[in-house]
Amino acid sequence: MVLCDFATSMGSSSGSSSSSSSKPLPSPQQQDIDGLLAGAGYKVRSSELLQVAQRLERLENAMGNSPADFSQLATDAIHYNPSDLGSWVDSLLSEFVQPSTCPSEVIMDPVPNQAVVSNAWTTAEPQNPQVHQNICYEQQSLNNQLTVVTATEEDSGIRLVHMLMTCADCVQRGDLSLATSLIDDMKGLLTRVNTVCGIGKVAGHFIDALSGRIYQGIGGGSVNGGSVLENEILYHHFYEACPYLKFAHFTANQAILEAFEGHDCVHVVDFNLMHGLQWPALIQALALRPDGPPLLRLTGIGPPSPDGRDSLREIGLRLAELARSVNIRFFFRGVAASRLEDVKPWMLRVNPKEAVAVNSIMQLHRLLGSEPTRNYPIETVLSWIRSLNPKIMTVVEQEANHNQPLFLDRFTEALYYYSTMFDSLEACTVQPEKALAEIYIQREIANVVSCEGSARVERHEPLAKWRTRLSAAGFKPLHLGSNAFKQASMLLTLFSAEGYSVEENEGCLTLGWHSRPLIAASAWHAVPDASAEFPAWDNQQSS
Amino acid sequence: MAGSNEVNLNESKRVVPLNTWVLISNFKLAYNLQRRPDGTFNRDLSEFLDRKVSANINPVDGVFSFDHVDGATGLLNRVYQPSSQNEAQWGIVDLEKPLSTTEIVPVIVFFHGGSFTHSSANSAIYDTFCRRLVSICKAVVVSVNYRRSPEHGYPCAYDDGWAALKWVKSRTWLQSGKDSKVYVYLAGDSSGGNIAHHVAVRAAEADVEVLGNILLHPMFGGQMRTESEKRLDGKYFVTLQDRDWYWRAYLPEGEDRDHPACNPFGPRGRSLEGLKFPKSLVVVAGLDLIQDWQLAYVTGLDKSGQKVKLLFLEKATIGFYFLPNNDHFYCLMEEIKNFVNSNC
């Protein structure tokens, strides 16, 4: 596979996140984080450094003393969130069961020369730049993350990107006449550039999207999402052509399987059933459970089908057949809703005795709005999800900042993000999967670039923002560990070309192309809410 | 055994700040878990544990970065540049213009360490280090994501280094100065230093100009056990056993440590006399167990009539440059800054 080289140059002058003076001050907890270790990717409180060091030391001694246990540790231990160094060391320590010592408390240090230990380190003055360093660390994870930039000898490619930026800037400033003339110029330039791959292909889509935005404003045509059937077909081909959705399904299923351990009645709520591609694997995995399969209920949410078909029911029937063939008691319910916010929790008929998994593959971002202060459907939906008291909520989202307030920032970010995604798609050779996958992505681009208000549903936000949002809504992370990572990596080598990479990000997993993460998978559970006595599903009138 | 272990740990604790000790001990522990006695490597665990960061086109502390994938090799290079004084230029990378038409801007091709096996160009520790290099030296840094052992042993790292050098030399947007050329230096720590040497040899033989080599406690060795190896084995984070493992993983099957890749001036090595080899800055940490090999390297260069400066940091351990919390770090940066700016 030859990577197509293309040039991009960036034009975001309104760096919304570039000035450190506009960043909020870190919380007191964050301020205590050792800034230098943060720069190395580790979060350790300065006040806990000595403790962590002592535990590292103890672990090292334990390893030295029993090499057999150590090699078992190396093969069997499952690791979580390596950024939290203290917890990581503790989890390894707890794997070492020393027969002579009491297994519970690992905090008390019986090392006789403890006094020597605490004095042995040369003291490091807290660095003045510590807080600043910390800001940078946070900032890096929230910023425009630049995608792969490849250089070409072709000047036209570079000029095309320059012009795209200028045009987007014109659109932002409202200078539509200059914007339209730039569109014409760019279309002309396109004829001289290879549009089969690389910058030519992506540029073409962005030019179309900009066109759509401009002519909408002037009273031209509207940019529509396709029909339900079209969307399903495109989605299916996107699923086949590249590993992003497979990774999403696979990672979510792993986490759900683990969360369902020990439960006899389980209920999965899928926020976007589509063809139910995610579920056969879970059904089969549940069938193979050592302690026997549970009773599985699946509630699939999806848009109402046009012309009398009931596609939700059709999918449900097919899944039921599969479940029957592997001897799982299975019940399906379809919930037809055009928008996720139209779904009421009582429609899901969740039983208080079931273990519930809520599964959202690229759906939550559709509930967001533009202004940070207004009330958008996301709040309501997250709140009723919590009221269901799910054992797990699996969330997969595009790892991109496509919901920024300024158009030019969104445009720039999207240009990088989708360039990278298209780059990765070059590795796919199967048709018509590849062509239709491209249309699928093109539709997303069109929505990000040319739609506004309620029509703009592709409001992707990065993992860091989702973490904040979900924490504020009362969810705590369930960390995805090294076993999930390893299996995701294996899946990639089986199904995909070189260049895809899985990364661990503080308990979440991302899949990207080369060093740019494009999609992020995380798992959550609800913090028990003391105030809720009667779950929302009992009240059929609830909103 | 336990007793001597405690002594070892106590010694390393005395010479580095607490957070440095935590960082490097953590690496030592993690790496121990990844190396298997049979010579295979748990790459999945390694990638899982490695802390990575994305590139960032928006300047952070005056430095921005972006990634490039070489179409021909599939190699990733991460480019770091000082941000423009003009804020309106932030977020813009112009691949059409040179770095400068009046001043010389050094371009440092950097090979990260990791004993040929660990880390990547996008590892947090190296991303941070390269950013500091850019800030302090006012240079452009290109960090090379070379293929690693044991999956890809000798000579892959050198091939990738050579490919990266050629790529850098041929970028018009990395040119500077009135002569419009790319002012290249090679640099690396540990295995990266070893790679820098071998790439420089290839460059010299191909008449490709490299202005200088910066070798930060470079990874060299040999069959014989030297005095420093025996004296410092296991004392400051590193053991002979792990060194041996990494050489076995990198060198071809059946080879020993006198292979010229490992021991360039050893019994199977060659003199570089007469070769147009770049001037070298070799930094040796006084508590590094392989310092005898590094000092032998310096002698070897000297005997070949090549220009070499030795910076011997007596109380430094390996990895002293990861955190800027010690004098050695600032001393090192000052030396590198002078080294790459001396031609201007």
Automatic annotation (TrEMBL), chain A:
Lineage top rank: taxon: Eukaryota
Residue ranges of the region described as PFYRE: 356-447
UniProt main location, coarse: nucleus
Residues covered by region (Leucine repeat II (LRII)): 314-346
Motif (LXXLL motif): 364-368
Domain Transcriptional factor DELLA N-terminal, residue spans: 34-99
Keyword Ubl conjugation in annotation: yes
GO biological process: gibberellic acid mediated signaling pathway
Placement of sequence motif VHIID: 266-270
Region (Disordered): 7-33
Keyword Nucleus set for record: yes
Record region (SAW): 450-525
Renumbered residue ranges of the record's region VHIID: 235-300
Biased composition (Low complexity): 9-22
Pfam families: DELLA, GRAS
GO cellular component terms given for this protein: nucleus
Cellular localization per UniProt: Nucleus
Alphabetical keyword list: Gibberellin signaling pathway, Nucleus, Repressor, Transcription, Transcription regulation, Ubl conjugation
Function: Transcriptional regulator that acts as a repressor of the gibberellin (GA) signaling pathway. Probably acts by participating in large multiprotein complexes that repress transcription of GA-inducible genes.
Family: Belongs to the GRAS family. DELLA subfamily.
Record remark: domains: The DELLA motif is required for its GA-induced degradation.
Protein name per Swiss-Prot or TrEMBL: DELLA protein
Species, as recorded: Durio zibethinus
Taxonomy of the source species: Eukaryota, Viridiplantae, Streptophyta, Embryophyta, Tracheophyta
UniProtKB/TrEMBL annotation, chain B:
Domain Alpha/beta hydrolase fold-3: residue ranges: 108-321
Sorted UniProt keywords: Gibberellin signaling pathway, Hydrolase, Nucleus, Receptor
Any one GO MF annotation of this record: hydrolase activity
InterPro entries the record matches: AB_hydrolase_3 (IPR013094), AB_hydrolase_fold (IPR029058), Carboxylest/Gibb_receptor (IPR050466), Lipase_GDXG_HIS_AS (IPR002168), Lipase_GDXG_put_SER_AS (IPR033140)
Subcellular location: Nucleus
Keyword Nucleus: yes
Main location: nucleus
Catalytic residues (positions): S190
SUPFAM superfamilies listed in its UniProt record: alpha/beta-Hydrolases
A cellular-component GO term for this protein: nucleus
Gene Ontology biological process terms, A to Z: floral organ morphogenesis; fruit morphogenesis; gibberellic acid mediated signaling pathway; positive regulation of gibberellic acid mediated signaling pathway; raffinose family oligosaccharide biosynthetic process
Pfam families: Abhydrolase_3
Transmembrane regions: none
Family: Belongs to the 'GDXG' lipolytic enzyme family.
Protein known as: Gibberellin receptor GID1B-like
Lineage: Eukaryota, Viridiplantae, Streptophyta, Embryophyta, Tracheophyta
